[in-house]
């Protein structure tokens, strides 16, 4: 059984969330770390290779715009971070769950998430070769474009994740949809298939499933002072201040 830190930051600043993921990825002596987090305000994150003009939600839909706009260091489509639980694994590639092929690591993590969803009566599985009802062209949104390794239920995508590997380390983060939003529309989500669940309520189920399915021992922790400082420094690069809602 492998021992990992578990850091939970609910309602965190968008730049800090992205910055901490990168800070942990670049720190070669940081211990294996799992994070559960949410965003305040609601945030649209663009994939590393996306152009602003290719994501209509970034400019607003029906007069509504996201509270903040950030860019991830991983690829893939845009995600509206609201009514969800975001997770990230950051660890050396020598860790057991990331040994082998890229596809195998996705399968392990998504199988554990599926086990947590099963506690709510949701049968989630990898998409495989089928088409999904949630696939929508030309929106630039992650949940409107699926791949064989995505986790789906009800013929729609409900979990999207992405990886970045560098210098023998991996960052694997993703979004588990508890409800949908105006920018994502008809996608798989917990409320539609089971009941309304907050991130703080789903997190313990996910923790237990990850410990059981991935044979992890998760120890609750907080970021070290140098990690927080580096996250704030890196976070300045991620957020477009023009999109931060003034409250």
Question: Could you describe the 3D structure shown?
Answer:
This protein is α/β, with parallel strands linked by helices and 247 residues long. It has one domain: Bira Bifunctional Protein, Domain 2 (BirA Bifunctional Protein, domain 2). The protein contains six helices and eleven strands. The chain has an eight-stranded mixed sheet, sandwiched between helices. Helix 1 (14-26) links the parallel strand 1 and strand 2. The longest helix is centred in the middle third of the chain and has 17 residues, at 102-118. The chain is globular, with a radius of gyration of 17 Å. The model is unreliable at 243-247 (pLDDT under 50).
Key descriptive features of the protein:
247 residues; alpha/beta; BirA Bifunctional Protein, domain 2; eight-stranded mixed beta sheet; three-stranded mixed beta sheet; 28% strand; disordered C terminus
Please write out the topology.
Blueprint: E1 2-12, H1 14-26, E2 33-39, E3 43-46, H2 56-59, E4 68-71, E5 79-81, E6 84-92, H3 102-118, E7 125-126, E8 151-153, E9 156-166, E10 169-177, H4 190-193, H5 199-214, E11 216-221, H6 225-235
Parallel strand pairs: 1-2, 1-11, 3-4
Antiparallel strand pairs: 2-6, 3-5, 6-10, 7-8, 8-9, 9-10
Order of helices and strands: EHEEHEEEHEEEEHHEH
Judging by the overall fold, what is the CATH architecture? 2-Layer Sandwich
Q: Strand content of the residues, in percent?
A: 25-35%
- CATH-level-4 superfamily name: Bira Bifunctional Protein, Domain 2
Low-confidence stretches: 243-247
Q: Would you give the CATH topology?
A: BirA Bifunctional Protein, domain 2
Mean pLDDT across the residues is 94
**Number of alpha- plus pi-helical segments:** 6
Oligomer: single chain
Tell me the Rg in angstroms.
17 Å
